Amino acid sequence: MINFEFTRVSSVKAAVDTLAKNPGGGFIAGGTNLVDLMKRGVMSPTRIIDINTLPLKQVEETKNGLTIGALAINSDVSEHELVKKNYPLLAMAFKAGASAQLRNMATVGGNMMQRTRCTYFYDTAMPCNKRQPGSGCGALQGYNRMHAIFGASNKCIAVHPSDMCVALAALNATVTVVGSKGQRNILFTDFHRLPGEQPEKDNTLAKGELITGVTIPANPFTKNVYYLKIRDRASYAFALISVAAALDMSGDTIKSARLAMGGVSHKPWRLTEAEKFLAGKPATNESFLRAAEIGMKGAKGYGYNNFKLKMGAAGIVEGLTKAIQNV
Amino acid sequence: MSNEKTDCPNHESLHDTRRGFLKKSTTLAAFAITAPAVVKAGENDEKIAGFFEKMPLQIEVNGTAHNLSVEPRVTLLDLLREQLNLTGTKKGCDHGQCGACTVHVDGRRINSCLSLAVMNQGKKITTIEGLASGDKLHPMQEAFIRFDGFQCGYCTPGQIMSAVACIKEGHANSEDEIREFMSGNICRCGAYPNIVDAITEVKKGGLPL
Predict the structure, then answer these.
(1) Is the pLDDT at B16 greater than 70, yes or no?
(2) What range does the domain containing A243 cover?
(3) Hey, what CATH topology would domain B139-205 get?
(4) Distance (Å) from the alpha carbon of A280 to chain B's nearest alpha carbon
C-alpha cells in the first residue's frame, strides 16, 4: 500500500476543513472498500481523514420519517427495531449485502461511496475510463458478465455494487451532505449518476463534501416488500441482478408500488414506469409480467451479460410475487 | 539483513519486535529518513502522522494493554501478526473475501485485514489466542475438535471467532441461519457441514461463550 498521512478528526467542520486543505485526501469510515482499493493500487489518497468519531451514528424516527447517520454501522441499522418494523425492505437489503463481518464495519455513508467491483476497474494493468479517464473500457468488448444493461455508455458499463442503495432509491430517501458552502440535500435517485462521458464520477457529491446522513420519508411499505438478490452463490457475492419490490395493498389491488434494481446499472435503477403501471392494478401474475416487460424496456446486453435481460424480467416478477406472499 | 544496525542504528523498530525480520529490512530505507514520531497539528482535534511517521496507538489485545507506535498503513491484521506476535489470526486473501483474519473488536467480529490499525485507537481486540482460559479451551474450540470442523486448519481461527460472534449476535437459530451468517468465512477443504454441527451443538448446549 502506498503510504499516506493520517488525520483523526472529531467534528464535521474539522473533517470538511481538513479535506479542503488536502485535495488529494479522502475520508475513511469502515474502510472495507477503500483499504482494499488502496492495497491494489486503484486508489491512493495522500491523506486519510478518519471520521469514525464524528457524532453521525444515530438511527431516529423524526416527523419526516427515519434519519440515519452516515456513520451508522450496516449491521446496527439492519437489526434496529424501527428499521425492521417500518422499513423492512431496507433491513432485507442490508442482510443481502456482504458478510456479517463486513456489515459490522461498513457504514451507511461508506456503503453509498463504495466503488464498482468491475474487474477491469480493479486490475491496474487493464484499461478503465473510471480508474484512468481516457484509457478505454476493458469491459465493453471484454468479459462483461457482471455488467450493466441499463444506462451504460460507450465509456463505461460498470454497475454500482450496493444492495442498501437499491432499497434507499426505492424508498425515495434523501442524502444530506455538508461542504465548505454549507449543507444540502440530494434525492437518493440523483446521488449516483450514469457514466456518460465521465465515468470517473460515481456520484453528484461535490468536491470536498461529506455525507452526514440519509432520511427516508415515512411510507406505507411495511408489509408487502421483498429484496430479491440473484448471485453466483447462496450468500456473500455481488448481485447478478437484484430487485427491491414494495407494494401498498388494498385488498387484492395495488394502491402503489415501488420497484428498483441492482446489478444492472451505474446507479440503483428505479423502474418508475413499471411502478406507475402497477398502481391500481390487481396483484396478479399477469400484472407482474406486464410490469416486468415495461420495466425492462431499453435494457441492452453486451455479450456475456445478455442473460440479465431474461433474468431481470423474471426477477421483477419473482420479487413482486414474493412481496405479495410476504415471504 | 545482517547489516540492519549499520543502516539504521538508532531506530526503535530494531528493538520493538521479535518477528517481522524481513519486513523491517525492507522498510529500513524509509525509516532512515523518519522525522520525530508524531506531529501534532494546531487544532486540538487533529492528530497527524506524516508519510514516514508512526502514530501512537493504545490498544488492548486479549486483555493486555499495549502502547504501540505504528505506520498509518499497517492493518490491524499485520499489527497482530507482525508486531504483537499473535500469528493465530491468519492472512488468507488479505482483501476481505475469505474471513481467515476475523477477530473481535469491542466484541464484534470484523475482518482485520481491512481495518487500519490506527483506526482501532482505544479498542479492545480479541483474537483466537484470547478465547481459551489457560489450558481450558473455549467451548467453540472444543466443539470444532469434537465435530471435526476442519481439515487443513488455516481458516479455523477465523471460523471459530466468527462462530462465537454468530451465536452472540443471535444468528444461530437454525442451520440455514448459521450458513447465512457464517458465509463470510470460506473453507477450501469444505468442512462446512461439520462447522455447522459444531456451532449448532454449542448453541444448543447453552455453553458460556
Answers:
(1) no
(2) 224-325
(3) DNA polymerase; domain 1 (1.10.150)
(4) 37
